[in-house]
Each structure stands twice: as structure tokens, then as C-alpha cells.
Amino acid sequence: MTRFIFRLPDIGEGVTQAEIVAWHVRVGDRVAEDQTLVDVMSEKATVDMTSPVAGVVVAINGEAGDFVPVGSTLVEFEVDGVADSSDTKPVPAAAVSPKPAPPVKAPAKQAPKKTPVPPVMLAEPESAIRASTDTPLASPAVRRRAHELGIALQYVPGSAAAGRITEQDLDDFIARGGVAAAPPIDSQGDRYAKRHGVRETKLIGLRRRIAERMQEAKRNIPHFGYVEEFDMTELEALRRELNEDRRENRPKLTLLPFFMRAIVALVPEFPHINSRYDEEPGVLRSYDAVHIGIATQSDAGLMVPVVRHCESLDLWGCARELSRVTAAARDGTATRDELSGSTITLTSLGTLGGISATPVINAPEVAIIGPNKLVDRPVVRDGQIAIRTLMNLSCSFDHRIVDGHDAARFVAQLRRLIEKPARLFMDRP
Amino acid sequence: MEDDKLSLHIPTPRARPGDPVTFDHISIPAAGLVRRPEISASEEQLRDLPYDLIRVLDPDGKAVGPWNPQLSADHLRRGLRAMLLTRIFDDQLFRAHRQGKTTFFMKSAGEEAIGASQSLALRASDMCFPTYRVVSWLMARDYPVVDLVNQIYSNANDPLKGRQLPILYSARDYGFYSLSGNVGTRIGHAVGWAMASAYKRDTRIAIGYIGEGSTAEGDFHEALTFASVYRAPVILCVTNNQWAISSFQGIAGGEATTFAAKAIAYGLPGLRVDGNDFLAVHAATEWAAQRARANHGATLIELFTYRAAGHSTSDDPTKYRPTNEEQAWPLGDPIERLKQHLLGIGEWSELRHTELIAELTEHVRGACKEADAVGTFGKSKPSAREMFEDVYKEPDWRLIEQRRELGV
Amino acid sequence: MASMNMVQALNSALDLALQRDEDTLIFGQDVGYFGGVFRVTDKLQEKHGVTRCFDAPIAEGGIIATAIGMGAYGLRPVVEIQFADYILPAFDQLVSEAARLRYRSGGQFSAPITVRSPYGGGIFGGQTHSQSPEAIFAHISGLKTVIPSNPYDAKGLLLASIADDDPVIFLEPKRVYNGPFDGYHDRALKTWAEHPMGEVPEEYYTVPLGKAAIVRPGSAMTLLAYGTMVHVAAAAIEESGIDAELLDLRSIVPLDIDTIVASVKRTGRCVIVHEASRYGGFGAELSALVQERCFHYLRSPIERVAGWDTPYPYAFEWDYFPGPARVEAAMRRTLEP
Amino acid sequence: MNRSPMTQTIKTKVLVVGGGPGGYVAAIRCGQLGLDTVLVEADRLGGTCLIRGCIPSKAIIHAAGQFESMARAAQAPRFGIALDTAPRVDFAATTRWKETIVDRLNGGVRALLARAKVRVLSGWGTFSDAKTCKVATAAGEIVIVAEHVILATGSTPVELPSLKFGGRVISSTDLLSLQALPQRLVVVGAGYIGLELGIALRKLGVAVSIVEAQSQILPLYDAKLVEPLRRWLERHGVAVYVGAKVLGLNSRGDAVEAETRQGDKLTLPADRVLVTVGRQPLTSGWGLEEMAVAMHGRFVKIDDRCATSTSNVWAIGDLVGEPMLAHKASAQGEMVAEIIAGKRRRFDVRAIPAICFTEPEIVSVGQDLDAAGGDATMVGVFPLQANGRALSMDAGDDGGFVRVIARKSDHLVLGIQAVGQHVSELAGEFATAIEMGAVLEDIAGTIHAHPSLGEAFHEAVLKSLGHAIHI
Questions:
Q1: Which fold does the domain C2-200 belong to in CATH?
Q2: Given CB atoms, is A81 within the 8 Å cutoff of chain B?
Q3: Full 3-state SS string of A275-331
């Protein structure tokens, strides 16, 4: 005599459970094959369950009105001879709750959680330290361990003869977080020993695009550099004051918004500077709108997000847009058109500043304006020595479009506005 | 109702669960009254037939009237056997679903006479384009029952290699075209097949089936157009079993006219036949077949019957019609009526009937045991490589790559 | 708030839609007295009247054609196609008429219809009860295609679709009608009662079309999924221990491209999961969009996990249905150096 | 594929097909790792190597060597030892002795598999899909359904269309079970198998001649390495015809006809014709075409983990490509077992040693002169005649030597070869040196026992560094 378990079969179309309507057998009854055992009702239909085997009922699961999940035991039989149970789904016998019950909370058996395999070492290989052609030398044991840890030996410096990688080399590599060390100092601590490491880094992605654009600009545009000293004392005072009592939704003012407003003010007088030069057809497009590119350093490299229509933004508007586009550039959410279409570019290294620079024009524009760092220095003002806040402005112009005299006049006008910021807020500066 | 305001008519059946059952709105003429025209009669002369109801067996089971096909007792007994085998098979496999041996099954309870009689009325080489309640066609042609069960279990010996839903058989050598779950889409294939036969100056004809609900599909009307235009040698049958899952035949246009009458619009003869009368169905089919073979083109036959059970294992008819409606169907049970006729002409006996039932029950149970041994659903299935075969004649690189990715 | 499965949530949405707007009506095969083969229109005819929710002939082309006619008149019909596999006879009406009516009539006519249909596999439906035709509709300009993965979204998205003035194909993953399904078919079946998205407000609310949901924030990679695959992907992430971000697209037209691009730019890796067969599936469009907009941020090829390119094979359901194991394998492939 | 209900079906984690050195090692390692494993082998456990290849041929070669030294002692005393009568050989008894060794090892393999709880099925397996294999066993048909399949069906001798096997024309398998020595043997194909067996039979007194299509015997080795062997053949009257194309048997069927490159015809009378022109992977007759596995020419295509194109179907040994060596198959088998058990492994070896048990023996590991002879390398050669141990074994006079090749830039050892009696046992040290990535200074810095043949390797290295002691 063997035991046969009859489970509530999957009666189709994703039905998860059924309610027992009426039993037609009791424990101890001998039933013939195909004899009706029980009526069950799902949301769809009332269905009579018939016995798949001939045998004696030894156990029944659930009374009328109970909800029984699909796959759980319904009836257990003692059958003569071998009969494998009708398990179509090896599902644990679910708890049966008395009537009337909301849909049965089948015990979400916590699947034995696979211990998460230690994520493969995501050592972002900075660079291979040997030519890709010659395979790294290591003993079978070292090679096996490295492979298990997902480390490509190509990036592991070998200290032994012929660059062979020892167990220690591998341990050091892992200890350093899977990053190739600075050129390995010779073991005797001799700082002047010759160093052999060569690191190859393929220019890809954003790095490659920056390289191409810079090369194109340098090759095609005859740069004319012009540096002028600006007295920023008055402007700095105004900036500090505006920042102190600014409304809380307004961003902190830096120098650049003032330059943006100054450029907007001068564009009508110098339209050819706010333009883009299309080389093939030899056409200069001058724009009424002033879209100022802001050179921004992101971890992937230099990006130039654009504040569009600066003519339509007041000082605070320029400041707000400036911080928005530069942040978007840094965290990679800047859209395609937020990164293109500038008519003139502002580039500032902020506090790093330097005393002067030769900025590369953001082709196909024709001018780039580069404020350097502020520094307090003694100067002669009206015959007296005075401590003033001074700043150099390094600009580059495309000499095909902007003559030297033009450039000098533009920078002089710029200086007049920046040194007397009040003029910035008048209609006709 | 404001007189000038419009209103939307939504057809509803005479009786819903809990209502008393009545079919007196259906006019049932006595057997033998409908005339049997010449097979070459032109369609204009036949325009009364679509509204009539051809019946041969009278209430006592006597064969009366001009449509009596004068069939031999052996032929009738083969029909009875096929119908009984179908019903016993249906009940056995319906229970198998309740025991988890398959996920889906459909009975043809009440409609066994249609497939059985038409299968025996036509030739072995004719091709039938069935719906999913015409399995009696195969039973009448002694298709191996074990292969039906293997297909229902989708086990390792499933002739359709586990790819098709249970009961959606295909058996070309038995003149049984491949079934699928879409409804109405294959009646056009029957017309096409018949046109091909005519094109090749062959002698084989086709018979296509469609449920009354599915006559709403565009496919049905397009098929009738082609059958009429090209005088295709095809018999188009509407099995009007009153129900399309929970929608009664009124939702398919049955309130306004009969389904046979649709033939008139296409210049085709339309016969309306008592679908539970083995002899009437046989006679009408013979008439249509002779007409087709004589190049007089297609005939539309409405087989007026009743779907005695639910739509499928996932349907409970008591949710949308009175529980005892099937008992009240005025045209009775096809098996009982043929049995009574055979008893009447002394060619049958109650003892032989019970013996036949026992023999067929054992035959079906044996086939199920044999299929159980190979394996029921989920316990045995063909190799998963079958999933990637017969998508095209030769598998392309996508299928090869994906079969390799799955690793079978 | 009430605990509802997806069928109840959809029923609640339809009930509210009928209640709020007399120009809304429902028809389709078996949806009237019987309440629909999946019970979605249960008791609506009884509550709102026979002309507000009634049965239709088995003529999918006719159902959509008459719905368009009603829409042109000014009604807002919500029709049901009993299984997405049976929508194809209505394809001409949906593409040549519903999708193009506003465009070709200079805005004079429009078809604000909603076409609801249970779709997807996992229930041994075989070739004609398991298919996922969303890619075909995504390709048609003029149609919107919306796919909820849980009861809360199902109600909100359906009400938004009904309110939307354009024709919307609303595909309901029938495998998760009664409970979330994560692909582990041999484990005990779960119900929505124990799932946060099974808590559904009883009052009217909408979930906007074209807005993806971040089901699980993460950094290592981005998984894009919709319908049942949201739960399969979630299980794969849980199983793999990889800190992946999972987006439930919720609608594929209109598509929330901004959320997708921002996520992939941050994680640098992308795995797309859908039930439909792979070749020309909607995953191909997603892959093209991500490649075009995030190429410089991608650190490995985009992976697609989908059904095999075969008709839906009945008995091989679990060999065909993309489960957590195949999703995890694809996730691992994107991590290989 | 209709299955009669009586067929028994077994579900297993791993199914290994082929019980040769690749298959049985994989199965044992799977067992050790706790994987439920079934091994199917139609013939005897041990495969070609153990039953009809490496082992039996080494036994016959050993016996031949004994016979030859006794025969020479009977001719003239050697180291004071003389024999009155010449030795006689009953080759049937020799092959019976060889069989005892084969049976012992075959029993050993069976015991190892049992200890590793591997279920061994003897019978021919045929696949109906990538994971289902029907095995025709004595007890009836058994169907195995596996999660992982390891294919290790090995290889079979290549048959020349012009010299079909049968009757007089024999393969290496047939030769090893001959009941009597032939008078005259013609060997077609001067690869290592043809030469090993040809030389053994020559030592046993058989008249041997060799026909080779290429221009040199042992074409895979550089000429200097083969020179001592060539001289032995010459001295022992073995006729060697290189660059000669075999046409077939003559009309009477008792001689081999061939044609030299210059066009003149050869007729070589032969009681037996040993055809050893190479081996081919066994890829037909067991349902490989039902498994959707991608091929690479005549071999099964694999990646560096021995994974085929079909998920969880692995292939190892002769089936997957050259070199067709038992120890390569075993290494692959062990690795695949560990991968299936979840470890990260790949077949990343620098050196697979190869040994010819010819007279004298040849060992080669890594690159030889053909591969690495250029000016970027440095070479050191030490003749065995200057090695005490060799002389003490009367093994110094056949022109044998040990040679090391290293990279000039960093002295990395690229290749090591040796030719001479008993050098085969040096294969281990040579392989270790190359696998560990040794440089010349590593070998130079290792004390080699005296007296031993290994010292010759040490001295060869010193020679390459320019300061050998003993030459």
C-alpha cells in the first residue's frame, strides 16, 4: 500500500486559489477512479474534482468554505500498488484558513537566498602596464587566484625577473584596491633607480571629443591673445553686499554673471564678436541673442554648457541659469542642446586663476573671455598708493574676424562697465 | 419613451440563471415537411429553404420525408459508434483536467452528430476545416485515440510536439485541417483549398466550419464572397449551438434572421438543418456535396443545435444561463435520437447499446492509461529543441543561436 | 485605501469612469451580463445599465470600427479585446483609422477610444493566448500603448488612458491579474494582498502616461522592464545581489526617455527585459534610443532578454518565458571586464 | 522520438560521454566535487590511451628493448656479460603480458570511478538533443537527461583511401594485439606512433621500412633534434623513404606501391602494412548533429573554458583539437569539472610536454628551433656523451643532447628539448620550468643531483649563459 497525494490542480488562467464548496467523501471511504470527491469554486467557475486513483481516503484538507491555494494537498489516499502522486507542482502544503477569509496569505516561503557571489573585482583598470602583445608571466597558482578574483594580470606589475608576477605582487595589487601602483620604487628604497613602467590609455568617449575639438580650433583659428588689468574693488564690494541680503531662493553671485551682463551690453556695439564663423562657405553669422558658453570642469573632462538668451536674464537670472547648466554638465544630465549653440564663451579657473592665460577659442565662435584670479596689490591712484583688488582678463580673438584694434576697444569698454558696475544697470551704458 | 429620441437596442437572451427555461419562441416544424430540390436547382428557386428546418427523424425516431438519406444500418451504427466514442472521450478527458493531467479541455457535448455524419457522408480524400467542437469527425475515421490524449497531455509522444494547446489537433491524413484558437479565420482556407482542387481539375471537395458567434467576423463574409464568385466546390457549415461563451446567438445577429439566410445575399443556396438529427445532417451534406462535385458551387448549411456543456474547462455556464437549459432543448440529444431510430428499425438493442458503451469506455480508458504511462502534462514533454523547429523550413541564425543559448 | 488585485483595481477604475462621465461606455465579447472572462467588468452592467456595459459580437474589426464611430460622435468608449492575440483582425481599424483620424481630418475628428486587452504569457495559453504585440503598436504613430505592472498603476493608468483624447492600447499582463509573478513558477503563488502596490485608493486618481517609475534605485546598471517582467527583473536583482536600478516604463508610447537616459548615463550599463520575442521587439527601439543618447557613457554593450524568436510554444512555457536566471546572466554579462 | 513506456530515464547533473583519459578524469573530479555524475563508455574504461594506445605501446617498446639488449649480448659480450644462445620471442605471450598491465589499470580506473560515486553505464550513447542521451546497454535502453554534458569521445586512426584497414593493412590498435610478428613490416606515416612501433618491431627482429609523404620523419620537430633517431634507423637497416606518396597495394596484394617525389616507383613487399598517417576526432555515429553544437573545421569548437557554443555542453581532449595528447585531455577534464562546480577557471597553460618513445627518445616542451630560433633568442646545447650518468648507462654514444632556448632580453626560458635514451623522464622538470616562467638564472641556480641525466639540462643552461663547466 502506498500513499498518493492529490493536490488542487492549476485550473487555468492564473487562478491562484479556490473555495471548497462541498465534500462528497469522508476519511475512510473507498473511492473508485473518477468518482467525484469535492466541489470547489474559483472566481471563474464551480468545478467538481474527481479521483485520479482508486483507493481509500486517509486524509482530506479543508472544510466547506475554506480557501485552498492551487497546488496544495486536497486529499490523501492509500492506494494498492505503486502510484506516484499527482504532484505537478511540488508546492508546500499551504495553511488553510477558516471561512470567510480574504484571499489566503500564502506563506511567501523565503527562497534560500543564494549567498551573493562577491561581485567580481570591479577594479577599473587604469591602464595596462605592459604591451598588450606579450602575455603576463606568473606561476599557475598566481594565474588561478587572479582569474578567480577577476583580475586581469595585464594590469598587475611584476617585480620578479622578466617582469614575472609573484604572489606578493598580486597581494600588493589587491591591497591597493586593484589599482596599478605608482612606478614601483626599487626594493632597496633607491629613489633614483631607473623606472620601467609604461601606461597606455586609449582616448575614448568625452576625452577623445575634447582632444579633437581643441586640435581643430588650434589648427584653424589664428588666435590673437589680449590681456588687460581690471580694478575689481568696486564690483567686489557690490557683489558682497548683494550676496548678504539676497532672497533665499537666489544663488550666491560669482563674478561671471557681471561679465555676462557686460557682454550683453556690448554686443549691439560689437555684433561681429557675438558670432560663429562657418569656414567652408566663409560666412560669419552674428547673433542678436547672446548664448554664453561656460567652460566647466567635470570628472569626465572639460564641458561647455550654455546659458541661452542672456539678454533676457537679469543679474540673478544669469546667476541662476549659470549654476543650473554647470551642475547639469557635471552630473551628466545636461541635454544635447544645453551643450551646444553658444555664441561666445566665458572661461574662468576660479581661485586657481593664474595671472594670465591663453584660452583656446570654442570653435566656431570668434572670441573667448577668461577672467584670471583676484589679487590685492598696491597701485597708484590719483598720485597716492592705494590697495586695490585687481584682476587680469585674458581673452583670445579670431584674428580673421576681429582686428587687434577692435579687440582692444571691446576689452576697454568691458573694463569700463566692470570697473563701474552701476553702469551695468543703465539702459544705454 | 420620448417619441423623437433615439434609443440603443442591446439584445438579451430569453432566460438568465434563475429564470424558467423556454424555447417556445423557436418554431420547430415537423420532420419530413421540407422539400428536397434537385442538386442542380438554381439558387433563386431555393430562397425559402434558409428559413425552414430540414428534419428526418420524427419524435418516435422514424425517418420520414424526402430528405431521408436511406442509409444502411451498418452505416448508421458506425455513426452511433463515432458519436458515443466522442462523448465518452469528452467526459474522460474533462475529468483528466480536474485531476491536473492537462491544463485545458473542450467538450463537443450535444454536437456529436455534425462531425460524425458529415465525416461519413464525405469521401476519405475530402478535406475538413474544423472548429474545436468537430472531433467526432476524427472519431468517425478511427483516428488513434491515444494520439489525441498524447496531444492533450503534450507529452513526449504528442504528434504536434508540444507546440499547440490541447485539443487543437491537426491530422492531414484523416482530412482534418490544423486547428488554432482564432475563430472564423480558417473558413476562407476551405474556400481556397476547394478553388485549388477545381483549378487542378481534381475531384476532392472541402467542408469548412464556423460557429454562429464567429459569423460576425469579416472573415466569414469574405469567405462567402469568394465561394460565390468562383463557384468553389465547398460546403460552408455554421454550427449554430446558441452560445458563444456567455453571448447568446442574438449577439451574432440571430434575432433578426437565420444564419442560413445569410447565403441569399451571396447568391448561394442556404440549407437550415436540425443539427441533432444524424440523418438530416447526412442528407443535407450529401446534397451539398453532389452539388459541389457537379460544379454547381458552394452551399451554406446552418446546423441548428445546442452547446450542452460549458465553453471549456475554464467556463461555468450556470453563471449566464439557467442550469437546466440543455435538458430543455427541443431537438433532443443526437445519440438518443439515432439510437431510438435504430431500435425502431430493429437494427439495434438496449443490450448491444450498453455493450457498445462498455467497449468504448474501456477503449478510451486504455488509451488514457497508455498516454499516462508516457506521461501526463508537466511529467513528460517533447525535447525543448522542438520549440526551435518548424518555425521556418530551415532554422535561421537567430534560432540556432537562441537554441544554443538555452542549451537544448 | 483598499487591498485589491489587478482585476479589482481595473474594475474599480471602469466603475468610476462610468460614474463620472455618461459619455463613457464599455463593450466587448462577454463583458456585459457575464462580467468578462477575467471578471474585469464584473457587475458593471448590473450597476450602470445595459447600454453602458454590453456584449459585442465576435468581430474585433467591428468592435473597433464602431468604437471609432462613437468616438467621432463625442463618446469615450472603452472596449475589451478578450485576448491580445485576437486584436489582429482590428489592426487595420486601429492603424489606418483610429491612429490617423485626427491627423488626416485637420483636427476636426478624433477617436478618444481606449482598447483594453489581457496580454502576455506564463499561463500555458499557447500560441493564441500568450502573445505580446506591443512592438507592433509602438511602431504606429497616432497610437499610445500603456502597460501596467501592478494594481495601483493599473487603475491610475487606465483612468488616465480613458481621459486621454488619443486612442490608447491598454495591455494588461494577465499573469499578474491575481498576484505578482516573478518567474519562479515552482514556488507558492503570491497574491497582491501582501504587495505594497496592492494598496489601491477607492477614489478617482490618475497615473500620468509617459512617466516611468523607479521601482528600485541603484548604481551598477539600469534595468528597463514593463508588465510582468518588472517582477521578474526585481527577483533577478534580489537573487544576484547586484545594486541595479530598475525602471518600470509603464507606457511605451509616450516613453519617458529623460528618466531612462539620466539613469543609463549614471550607471553606464543597460539591460532591457520583455516577454515578446526578441527580434524587432520593443527592446530593439529602447536599445537604439539608449545607444544614440548615452553612447559615450556606456561601459558595455546593451543587453536584451526576451522570448525566443519562435511562435509561443504551449508545453515549453518555462523554457520560453524569460525568467530571473536569464535576466541575471545578462546582468553578469554587462559586468564582465 | 517515440519512447516506449518501459524505457528507464535517469536525471543527472553531469553526463560524461567517453571513458578515456579526458572523460574518466572529468568524471572522477566531478564526483570529488559532489556532483551527481554518469559516465557512458561503449568500449573499456581507459579509452584509446590505456586500452590500445600509450600504455600497451610502451609495454611492447619496453619488451623490445629488453630483447634487443639480450640479442646484442648473445652476439658479443657487453660489460662482460655474454649469452650462449640468442633470445627467442613468443609475441603472443608478449601481448598477453601487455594485456595484464592494461587490465590492472582498467580495474584501477573502475575503482577510482566507484570511489568518486560515479555511475558508469557501458553501452553506446546517442544524443537526441543537447541534454538527452539514449544509451543502448545490455539491460536495455536507458535515457539520460543531464544538466551538463561533457563530450570526450576522443579520436580514431585516419584511414588512407588507397590502403583501407583490413587483412594485411593494420592500424596501431591491430598491431598491439598481433599474435605473431610479421617478417616484413611497411610503416606508412613517420609520425611518432609509426616510428615508435616500427622501431620496436625492428628491435624484435622484424624487417621494417618506412614511407613518409613529408620531406622529413617526425615533421613536427626540428631536424637537429631528429638527427640521432635518423642515424639509429640507418644503422639498424630500416629503409626510410621520405617525400614518397603511397599508391596502394600491388595487384597480388603482398607489397606496398609508392611513388617518390622524383617520380620513380617503389614496390615494398610486406607481410603487414601499419598505416599511421594521423588521427581524426570521433564526431559521427553518436548524435552530435542533433545537439546544435558549432564546429571548428573537423573539431568541436570550444572557448578557453572548453565550453561549446551550446550552454552547459562542454568538450575536451582529441575531440577539440591538437595536440591530441592524453595529458591535455585530463587537464581539460579536471578544469571543466571545477567550472561546473562553480569555480572560475580557464585553460591557460604555457607548456604541454610531448614525448616520443622512439630510439633514442625525444622530449620537447615549449618552442623549438623552428619556432624560436631567431637572433632575439640564445641557445645552449649539452651533449649527453659528456654526462656521467648517461655513460654509466651505456647511453651516451647515440648523439643525444639537451638544448635550452631563452629570450635574450630577459633570459626567459622559451623551449627545452632533449634526445637520448631515458630522457623521457626529464619531461616533468622541463614542463615545470616553462610553466613557472623560469629564467636561465633560475635553472642555473638550482643544484641538480649528481650523477643524473638532469645535470645535462643544468649544463645546457650554463652553456647558454656562456660559462658551462663540463664542456
A1: Rossmann fold (3.40.50)
A2: no
A3: EEEECCCCEEEECCCCCEEECEEECCEEECCEECCHHHCCHHHHHHHHHHHHHHHHC
Quote the CA–CA distance of C248 and C259 in Å, as a whole number.
Answer: 11
pLDDT at C177 over 60: yes
Q: Do B314 and A10 touch (CB under 8 A)?
A: no
Domain with CATH 3.40.50.970 in chain C: 2-200
Mean pLDDT estimate for chain D:
95
Question: What is the third-level CATH fold of A216-425?
Answer: Chloramphenicol Acetyltransferase (3.30.559)
Task: Average the pLDDT over A50-70 and give the result.
Answer: 86
Q: How many CB pairs under 8 A join A and B?
A: 51
Instruction: Write out the residue limits of the CATH 3.40.50.970 domain(s) in chain B.
Output: 44-312+326-377
Residue ranges of chain A assigned to CATH 4.10.320.10: 119-187+197-201
CATH superfamily, domain at B44-312+326-377: Thiamin diphosphate (ThDP)-binding fold, Pyr/PP domains (3.40.50.970)
Provide the pLDDT for residue A185.
42
Which of residues 183 through 202 in chain C touch A, CB cutoff 8 A?
184-191, 193-194
What stretch(es) of chain A map to CATH 2.40.50.100?
Answer: 2-79
Q: Is it the case that residue D290 has pLDDT exceeding 50?
A: yes
pTM of the entire predicted model:
0.77
Condensed to tens digits (0 to 9), the pLDDT of residues B122-177 reads: 999 999 999 999 999 999 999 999 999 999 999 999 999 999 999 999 999 999 99
Could you tell me if B331 and B304 are in contact, meaning their C-beta atoms sit under 8 angstroms apart?
Answer: yes
In chain C, where does the domain assigned CATH 3.40.50.920 lie? Answer: 213-335
Task: List all residues 6 or more positions away from A375 whose beta carbon is below 8 Å from its beta carbon.
Answer: A389, A390, A391
Give CATH for domain A119-187+197-201.
4.10.320.10
Chain A CB contacts of C262 under 8 Å are 332-333
| Rg, Å, chain A Cα set | 39
The CATH number of A2-79 is 2.40.50.100
Domains in chain D and their CATH numbers? Answer: 8-50+96-157+280-340 (3.50.50.60), 169-277 (3.50.50.60), 354-464 (3.30.390.30)
- Tell me the average pLDDT of chain B: 96
Among D344, D349, D439, the residue with its CB nearest the CB of A161 is D439
For residue A53, the distance in angstroms to the closest alpha carbon of chain B comes to 10
Q: Which residue is listed with cell 590502403?
A: D163
Rg (CA), chain D: 24
Mean of the pLDDT values across residues B73-81?
98
What number does CATH give the domain C213-335? 3.40.50.920
| Chain D partners within 8 Å of A164 (Cβ) | 437, 439
pLDDT tens, residue by residue, A288-344:
888 899 998 877 678 889 888 888 888 888 888 888 888 888 877 777 778 888 999
Residue D20 DSSP SS3 = coil
Answer yes or no: do B384 and D1 touch at CB < 8 A: no
The model's pLDDT over B323-341, given as tens digits with 9 standing for 90+, comes to 989 999 999 999 999 999 9
Q: Region A64-74: what's the mean pLDDT?
A: 83
Of B97, B314, B316, the CB nearest to A46: B316
> How far is the CA of D349 from the CAs of A77, B221, D432, D436, in angstroms?
60, 72, 11, 10
Q: What is the pLDDT of residues A181-214, one digit of tens each?
A: 444 444 444 556 666 666 666 666 667 777 777 7
Q: Which amino acid is at A224?
A: F
Gap from D237 CA to chain A (nearest CA, Å) = 46
Which position among D62, D448, D450, D458 bears the catalytic label? D450
A364: preceding bond cis by omega (within 30 degrees): yes
Return the pLDDT at A353.
67
CB atoms within 10 A of CB B372: 18
